[in-house]
Amino acid sequence: MKIKSAEFETSAPTIASAPRWTLPEFAFIGRSNVGKSSLINLLTERNALAKASVTPGKTKLINFFRINTNWCLVDLPGYGYAKVNREDRADFNVAVANYIEKRDVLVHLFVLIDSRLTPQKIDLEFLNWLSTIDVAFSLVFTKTDKVSMNAVESNVALFKSTMKSFMTVSPKIFTSSSTTKRGRKEILDFIEAELAR
Ligand code: GDP
């Protein structure tokens, strides 16, 4: 898919103030610092579409970007904030959970995982919750340029085997790197195929 246009549409703190449209949405989520802004910028070829926040967890809003006029990319606040107070964090988890569970135009959720790490509790907890609700999702292992392909493969395999304890069907897996552009074509092709369904 060629990205002809990518425009910031709006930010919303909760699903109640999200745009009322029928555009299909593809959302991105992951712990802070996983490389979500970098991946969104890579996919859209816009260097600062998703601004990397200075303070981890500062981006608390759900951000909507209209792509090519026919779909919407949604940047969800990261989970696992280090510097956000308890109250904000609770609010956010509820807003994000509501978006994922109830947003009827949500087509697919990409869950970003740092490919350098063995399965982390916070990601597994999130995936465990995700497996209990009716949402199509896949995993994107980020920053693959930072480690050997062996390490990436071994972490992916470890993830798959760990997920088997709470998931019957293994989700689709992508690998990405914002420096080598790995994964860009695969993710955009996947979105294109979903749009054509
Ligand atoms: P976010 O908090 O999830 O939006 O993460 P960012 O996109 O801001 O990335 C966090 C840090 O990791 C930044 O310093 C990025 O430059 C770096 N980073 C993100 N993706 C990659 C990648 O694929 N390769 C490398 N080498 N660094 C990355």
Q: Your description of this structure?
A:
The chain is an alpha/beta fold and 197 residues long. Helix content is 32%, strand content 22%. It is built from five helices and seven strands; from the N terminus they run ββαββαβαβαβα. The protein has a seven-stranded mixed β-sheet, sandwiched between helices. The chain binds guanosine-5'-diphosphate. Guanosine-5'-diphosphate (GDP) is lined by residues 30, 32-38, 52, 78, 142-143, 145-146, 177-179. Its cofactor is Mg(2+).
Radius of gyration: 16 Å
Number of strands: 7
Bound molecules: guanosine-5'-diphosphate
The shape is globular
Number of domains: 1
Keywords: Cell cycle, Cell division, GTP-binding, Magnesium, Metal-binding, Nucleotide-binding, Septation
GO molecular function: GTP binding; metal ion binding
Function: Necessary for normal cell division and for the maintenance of normal septation.
Family: Belongs to the TRAFAC class TrmE-Era-EngA-EngB-Septin-like GTPase superfamily. EngB GTPase family.
Describe this structure in a few short sentences.
The chain has 197 residues and is α/β, with parallel strands linked by helices.
